[in-house]
Each structure stands twice: as C-alpha cells, then as structure tokens.
Amino acid sequence: MIKRLFSPGIEHKKARWGWVFIFPSLVFFALFNFYPIFNALHTSLFRKKLLSLKPPKFIGFDNYIYLFNSPDFWNSIRATVVFTIGTFIPMVIFSLILANFIISRKRFQKFFQMAYYSPAVLSSVVVAAIWLLIFDPRGLSNQFVNLILNMPGIDHKWLANSVMVQISTMLVYFWKYVGYFTIIFLVGLASIPKSIHEAAKIDGVNAWTGFWYITLPLLKPTTILVSIMSMLQCLKTFSTQYLFTQGGAPMEPINVITLNLYHTAIRDHRIGLASAMSIILFCIMLFFTWLQFKGSRSDEVSY
Amino acid sequence: MAQYLKRKKKTSTQSFIMDMFIWVFLIIAALFILAPFVFMFTASSMPATDIMKMPYRWMPQGFYWQNYWQGIRGNDGSFIYLRNILNSLIVASTVTATTVILSALTGFGLAKYHFKGRHFVFMMILATMMIPFEVIMIPLYLIITKLGFQNSYQGLITPFLVNAFVIFLMRQYYVTFPDEILDAARIDGASEPMIFSKIMLPNSVPAIATLAVLTFKSQWDNLLWPLLVAQSEEMKTIPLYIVRFTAEKHTDEGAMMAVAAIASIPILILFLKLSKYFIGGATVFSARKG
After folding, report:
1. Domains in chain A, ordered, with CATH?
2. What's residue B29's pLDDT?
C-alpha cells in the first residue's frame, strides 16, 4: 500500500541519497585504509629510506629475504609468540573462571564486574608506569612474593632478568585485560537459558560436572571469540614493552614485532624494511582472523 | 532415611566449602586488580623516599602535594603537561564526534537505502576491519608528512575519522529500525537528511553513547600514532608526556604517580558515571557471534 504511493522516480532519488550518506566515509577509507595497505605492500619491495632524497630502489623480495635471515627479526617473532601464548592462555582460563564465579553469586555481581573491568579503562601507558614502580627492586612485587614464600630480602629482578622481564610484561597485560574478557564471558553465560541448569540440577548433576559437560560446550562460541580476540590483541602489544625499555629494562627479551617495526622505521629510517615487517605481521593476524571466522561458523550452538 | 539425611548434610557442607572458596577467590582477585590503583593514588601523595620503604605503607601520612605540582610543572618548569592534557581532550573529543556522526550516517545509508553496489560497499568496509592499524601506520605516516600535517591536530586526528567497526555496529542497529516510520515521515514531507537528524539520530542514542565511549577511550589511550606524528612538545598528548616523564625522571616516583593519577582521573570519573556504556562497549564484540 505504502510502496504504491512512491513512483519509481522517488525510489531512484532515494537510492541516490544512500550514496550521498556513505560517500564521505568511502573517501576516507580509500585514502586512509585501502591506499596505505597497498602502499605498504608496494614499499616493502623497495629499498627506501626516510628523509633520503635518493629515489627508492626496486629490490624485489630482498627485504623479506633479509628479514628471514635476520636473527634480530626472529628474536622479535620469538618474543611476540612467547608473549602471546604466555598471556592469552592464562587470560582465557582466568576470565572463564571469574565469569562463572561471578554469575554464581547472588550479591555483589555488579561490584565485581566493575572492579575487574576497571584496569581496562586506564591508558596502557599509565598501567605500564604503575607496574614499573611495582617491579622496582624495592617495590611491591618483591615484597609480596617474599611474603608468600617467606624469604625476605630476595630481589627477583623483575625488570633486569631476561626471563623475568618477559613474565612481567605478561603480568601487566593479564592484569589490564582479564576483567575485560570476564565481561564478554558473562554475556555468553547470560545467554545460556536458566532452564538447562535447572533441569540438570533436578537430575542430580553437581556443579563441577554441570560446568564441564553443560556450560563449557554451550560456551564454545564465546570461548573461541575471546581466544582469538585476546590473541590478536597480544600480537599487537606495544605500549608496555615500549615504556619498560624506556624505563631501563633490557630491550632484547621483549623486543616484540611492533616495537621492532617502530624502531626500524623511526630510529633507523628503513621504511622499506619496516613495511615488509608490517606485511608479515598482517599475514600472521589475517591467519588468526580467518581461523576465528572459520571457528565461529562451524560452531553455532543452539540451545 | 537416616542415610539419606546424612548424605544430604554432607553435600550441604561440601557446597558451603565451595561457596566460601568462590567468595575467597573472587575477593583475592579483586584485591589483586585493585591494589595497583590504590598504589597509584597513595604513592602519588607520598614523598619519593616513603614510597620505596619496605614494607609499603598503604596509608599515606598527609598529602604530599609537591608531587602533583612537580608533575604539572614538569622538569623544566614549562607546564607543558597542561597543554598535553588539552591536546588529548581535543583529539579524543574530535575523533569521537566525527567517528560517531560519520559512522551513523554511513550505517544509515547502508541499512536503509537499496542502491546498486550496496553489498559490495558493505563488504569492502568489513574488509578494512581486518587491517590492523600497526600494519598501515608507516604509509599513513608518509601520507601525513606529505600533507604537511606533522605536529598538528590534523595529523593526530585525520587517520581516525572513520572506523569500520563502528559503521558495522551502527548498520546492524539501524537495519532493525522499522521502515514504516521512515516512509511516514517522507509522506509528511521530511527530506532524507532531516529523517537522519530528526528520527534516526535521536532514536539511536544508547548505541551512539556506547560507541562514543569506546572511541574516546581508545583515543585517550593512543600511544603509537602520536609517537610518530607529534615530535614537538606542544603537540604531544598525555601518553607521550608520561613516557618522557618516566624516561627522564625515573627516580621521582611520587611525581611519576601524580602524573599517572592526573591522566587517569578523568577517564575513571567517566567510567564511574557511564559504566553501563563502558561495559556495553566491551560486550558489543560478542554481538558478532550468531
């Protein structure tokens, strides 16, 4: 009925408005997303120096070959992989536990949500600055660990030892984001109908079996989502490592890809090489994004 | 019967222990999460010599305001931190306003107009969601340098004017909006821009608020991009000031925490006032699962 009130001319005019509305965004996407990604791909095939007046020289895949033969770049890959695995696995496990514990409470749910989420609100530089002081030899971390282990006066070298400094960066990231992922798990948990748990309770299923055989399988899509999201975030980590090295921590153990990328481009002015590095990072992340899409497609759960 | 009662009693003590365990776990986790906050605020009000005393005194004796003075004044007495705070506010609010308005407009266009090539455009926008900023930052830096936007607000703001993720969410929000209302407005003579500003915008305030908070927070937190484009002290943002202050003045822990506290107070107030939108912002990601 309403449709008939409009002539095809008006429909056509209406459609034109659609283009008008999306046009500004499209221009920006073309300039600041599509052009840069192709530009990065293009630049990665050249020897190009920032500030240099010499025209960039085409060198094919030499930048990539250089990177794959460079111990420094392999160290960055190692640092990134170690950091990602060491951070996202505990993060997923603990946020899952915390979400399940919170939802089992009748009171203070809101308080715990707010408290756990609060570090995610702080800017990552502030977070790194706070933990830089906590990891000081005379700081809280040594006092706390020594109190628990009952061995006063030992310095665990949180920022000086090459293994400890990696653990420290993981701890900072874990602290900042565990609450964030707890919230996402809580949404997933809330979408599981209560009747399923009630039915299980009537059948005499205890809490542990219920969690293991009912909650966990139903929560699989959320778990995949959280895993990939946290993994992608860990792969991009920069601020903590940057501030820690600025604050005097050794560079080599925590020289993650983004940090290396930044130094190669800005300190060493090697734009071509840095572009090759960013393309490799892009491929790694694309792989995990693809994995997420694949995972979320095949694991639709119906209640 | 007696046996049954006994068993029931056993399970209830078991569940009581479990219950206590969960409370203790949650409280310890909360202490672990909140302790660094308390540390930041207490340390910011103590002289540096007290902060590194073992064991740490959680209750400061009096308020050592010199830390805040030192943090704001800076090591060279230039008070550049105030300018940097202003920069952060300008950049974060401008990006938030433009991102939200442009994304709402684009989301509306994609959701409610059946023009040719609509699906293609939508897919292209979704594809940009997969391009991480870290990957394109060097070409962006070259573009901004070429445009002469280094050390300027334009340089800090321009790359973030649109956001594919925000567009995607706005589109999903608008798709469910009933067409009949729009058609009724058209019959009453409303133009298409008027439909957007008078009907769509007011009707999407919760979604817009959530996405605005999300955008503001991520800009407030941004370190990498300002690090590239803002070299002059006047154009630096809060994270850059903290980096410089930490690197230069590593030994003045009290002032360092004062600087951190000043940077955190606005966003923490926002969080306490608008916690609904912050937490909503975290959960929009899970909206993607079917």
Report:
1. 61-296 (1.10.3720.10)
2. 95
* ipTM, two decimals: 0.87
Listed by start position, the domains of chain B span 13-67, 76-289
The list of chain B residues with pLDDT below 70 reads 1-11, 249-250, 285-290
Q: Over the stretch A167-194, which tens digit does the pLDDT of each residue have?
A: 999 999 999 999 999 999 998 888 888 8
| Fold entry, domain B76-289 | MetI-like fold (1.10.3720)
At A54-67, the pLDDT tens digits run 788 888 889 999 99
At A54, list the tokens. 């010499």
| CB atoms A18 and B137 under 8 Å | no
Could you say which of A32, A221, A247 has the minimum Cβ distance to residue B250? A247
- A285 with B114: Cβ contact below 8 A: no
- What is the pTM for the complete model shown? 0.88
Q: In this complex, do A247 and B238 lie within 8 Å of one another by their Cβ atoms?
A: no
Question: Does the beta carbon of B123 lie under 8 angstroms from any beta carbon of chain A?
Answer: no
Residue A199 CB neighbour total at 10 angstroms:
12
Which residues in chain A are contacts of B102 at CB distance < 8 A?
A: 24-25, 28
Answer for the pair B102, B162: CB distance below 8 angstroms, yes or no: yes
Residues 6+ apart with CB under 8 A from A102: A109, A112, A113, A182, A186, B26
Residue B224 sits at the chain A interface (C-beta within 8 Å): yes
